[in-house]
Design brief:
mainly alpha, 6% strand
Length: 125
């Protein structure tokens, strides 16, 4: 499912994909908390700060038993890497992440090692 995210990273509007499973969870969250201005609001009904988001991610990683440092950028990087490893064209990943240049998106390619194992050398065919 394609969704529009307003004021995403870099204060940019962009489109990205949303899992059908996540949509179900978001609907339940919405029914329970009834946010007014932003989907995720703090206790004062204001937009979550970057610091608060970081704390939520860190605490969740700790509860999950993850021992390495995890940040919201780690999640973003993992999302891009998994898309790349699944064979998604880098230009689509660029759009989903809101990058202006494919050069920025190419930073994720060094992590996607199993993508290279599927490439066949034309001389071997």
């Amino acid at each position: 499912m394609l969704i529009k995210v307003r004021d995403a990273k870099g204060n940019k509007d962009r489109y990205t994909i949303l899992s059908k499973k996540m949509l179900k969870d978001l609907r339940e969250y919405y029914r329970q908390y009834r946010p007014k201005n932003n989907l995720f609001e703090g206790q004062t009904k204001e937009q979550y700060s970057a610091n608060s988001v970081g704390k939520v991610v860190t605490n969740t990683a700790n509860k999950a038993g993850i021992k390495i440092p995890v940040s919201s950028h780690t999640l973003r990087h993992s999302f891009a890497t998994h898309l790349l490893e699944a064979g998604t064209d880098i230009r689509y990943i660029q759009l989903l992440l809101g990058h202006n240049s494919t050069k920025t998106t190419e930073l994720y390619t060094h992590v996607a090692k199993n993508s290279f194992s599927a490439i066949k050398n034309p001389l071997d065919m």
